[in-house]
């Protein structure tokens, strides 16, 4: 006999579900693949790189990786060809149990820039699990007095597969007493059971052995069996009966131990021991249910004794039987369906993945920093999570997918203002009261070279005494860079220039690291009173930034120079009496010069005469101011200067021939002539004659005023020319003092 567990109505529901599923997939932004469970290692799943729009060459440089929470080794990607393949055994039943939907959610992450893709791989069910009964043998005790059409419930088989692979068909081994009653819907009000079709006769058949088979609709079909051992009992005609065959109870999770779930009530029409009822769970109830629920054998109360957790199991099915105490006990059966109500007892969970840190301070708004996954094991409003971020920060949370958020940069960063952000992400569910969880994200801001070194002031004044030792430290410059690491490493250098005919680096140097400025040689105040230069400070960033500071070094004077006489700028010719300059006259020379000219002869004893020359210096191009008389005298002197040479030649010849005679006559005159007093008054010329021959000696003191402009050396200023003196009787004491006189065989000396 063959019995189907589902009807046409079930097929229509399944078809409608697949239509809705396909419609949802067409609007989702995910990439969907499917793979059958139990596929071999290396089984092709999909060309994931191609489907994501990624080039094969960029998979390795962009650190292509696949993450799957809790299922990391099931699927893998070949980075050479971009194919997603099966890496290890996939057991759908282990992953999803009896759930109709079973998918592996993958996060595909690539860097540079950071991107995340969501891939869903649906695990297709194959018929790899046969139907299984709770027990391999079921013992039934049935009184021979039971009426025809009496029903005896059986625990059906279960199949870990889904859909067609879990649709079961039951068959009962051929027999003349029982038929199999299979429900036609999923309401489970009426479980699988045996129906008595022929009265039992314990004397003829005290025991019956039947085989119950369950076959699924997979390809190939798989079958599970259970042995039914039926023992025919005698006597007790009435079995206990419950008010209802199905009880539905709602129980909040986390109820304390001892909480009453339900009180069952069964009745037996028999009397005495045959009417006394004992309540118990059916023998096929799982140990897990027995660890969470307890039934009082006398009162029929079901009490919670273990931890009831909605997240562990949402429903419990309790098979209860009531057995009387007759010698041939009879039993009544019912099912208690316990629905566990969710309570907000699970705080949200936050998982921070793929940190892209540190983040450069010049990163553009919208840059993804990290990915955050939130989850809550509760359901309904208790499982709805909202994420928030620490306020007043340049970041924001962006929802990218269900329960996924991206932490992105919202506004510009400045490391010099804030170098590190300690962010707190808060996830809060919609329960009442709500529960929350937090995760800390430390965002370090990486430095870029956006600050040049800066000096405290743009200019410094330094005072240094002259004659300093070479290499002495005269000043230290210091610049501060607000950047960090190599961007803040400052090096110092001179801004090279020429100081006169020499390079600046021959005077001073600066230490590249410390900024100390050294004088490389002794400074001389008389040579250089002020040395002004610039020092450059430059950081080690790329590209480097720099700034300059000006140093004014004043060289202080010390008393290191003794007074010295400058060479006298005039000279007189030894025999001609010409006065000329020896060097260029400049502003340092006195504007008025006083010259004393000494004329000395070769007589015995030698006689001398002096003349004082006053010299005034004027600017070049200025005409000296003189009287007409002086100008006339100067013109006469120029005319007389022509005769000087002739007179000199005659005088030299005469003096040479008469030198000896003159000496003799002079000696005689000195011995015989009386002394003459008052011959010359102050400021008047005096003439002395020794003989009629004409030998004479004349001395006169004169003063000459000469004006001269600046000019080259050896410029003739004045000449003393010899002239014949008048006789003593004709001496004119009122003679013009500007006249020129002739001296014979005389030497001229210049005194200051």
From TrEMBL:
InterPro entries given in the database record: Cadherin-like_dom (IPR002126), Cadherin-like_sf (IPR015919), Cadherin_CS (IPR020894), Cadherin_N (IPR013164), Protocadherin/Cadherin-CA (IPR050174)
Tree of life domain: Eukaryota
GO CC terms, sorted: plasma membrane
Membrane-crossing residue ranges in chain numbering: 646-666
Domain Cadherin, chain residue ranges per copy: 27-133, 134-242, 243-350, 351-455, 456-565, 570-626
Keyword terms: Calcium, Cell adhesion, Cell membrane, Glycoprotein, Membrane, Repeat, Signal, Transmembrane, Transmembrane helix
Location of the protein in the cell: Cell membrane
Record membrane topology: Single-pass type I membrane protein
Keyword Transmembrane helix: yes
Signal peptide range: 1-29
SUPFAM superfamilies (alphabetical): Cadherin-like
Protein name: Cadherin domain-containing protein
Organism, as annotated: Ursus maritimus (Polar bear)
